[in-house]
Design a protein that fits this description.
Helix content: over 70%
Distance between the termini: 40 Å
CATH architecture of the largest domain: Orthogonal Bundle
Order of helices and strands: HHHHHHHHHH
Structural class: mainly alpha
Number of helices: 10
């Protein structure tokens, strides 16, 4: 993945100057980054009909068409901009298939901006050291607490957890994408974990 420094800065300048090869290289440098982002948010029940790579390709095509506008202003980091475009593609895919066939995808997520499958995956990674429930009832209750806890967080705090634990992003990458300082990311991260722990232990 590229950034705004070093060789990345030179590529940005060439792209802004109209160099078509540089524009292509600039966006192509984020393909794998976006694929991990999309895969973490795409409901797995849509896998037979929606591929993360296709949504990333659509995202990059949209980005190519809007690149001049972005390069003129660059009010946010390119990672933040591209993530916003990719998120729109994911939302559109969920909306289309949820409406088109409710028999296959039976309900929308209880966690805003994150399908239940990804939310539960995130919860299990966060609480991997906890004792696993020994029966289905306890497992459902634990899952309900995970979903309730994640739903209670702010969208930004949820995004930090998703980026760190599902996308495996560094603190610096999270900070760049969300327009925060690394210190701010670390503080929000700790507070979010404390909040989730309290809910999991029925303290709130």
């Amino acid at each position: 993945m590229l950034d705004d420094t070093g060789l990345g800065h030179e590529l940005f300048d060439r792209a802004a100057g109209g160099d078509q090869a540089a524009r292509g290289d600039l966006l192509e440098g984020y393909r794998d980054y976006l694929r991990r982002m999309v895969a973490a948010r795409l409901d797995r029940r849509l896998a037979p009909r929606v591929d993360a790579s296709d949504l990333v390709q659509e995202t990059l095509a949209t980005a190519a068409a809007r690149l001049d506008e972005y390069l003129r202003d660059r009010r946010i980091s390119i990672t933040g901009w591209l993530r916003g475009l990719a998120r729109e593609r994911v939302i559109d895919a969920h909306r289309h298939h949820l409406v088109a066939d409710r028999r296959s995808v039976t309900r929308e997520s209880r966690v805003p901006d994150l399908p239940d499958t990804s939310a539960l995956d995130l919860g299990r990674r966060l609480f991997a050291g906890d004792t696993s429930p020994s029966n289905n009832l306890m497992r459902r209750e634990q899952n309900d607490r995970i979903l309730a806890g994640l739903a209670s967080l702010s969208a930004r705090d949820r995004e930090i957890l998703v980026m760190k634990y599902l996308e495996q992003r560094s603190t610096a990458e999270v900070a760049e994408a969300l327009g925060l300082t690394e210190r701010g990311v670390k503080g929000r991260h700790v507070r979010a974990l404390v909040r989730l722990r309290e809910i999991m232990e029925n303290k709130v």
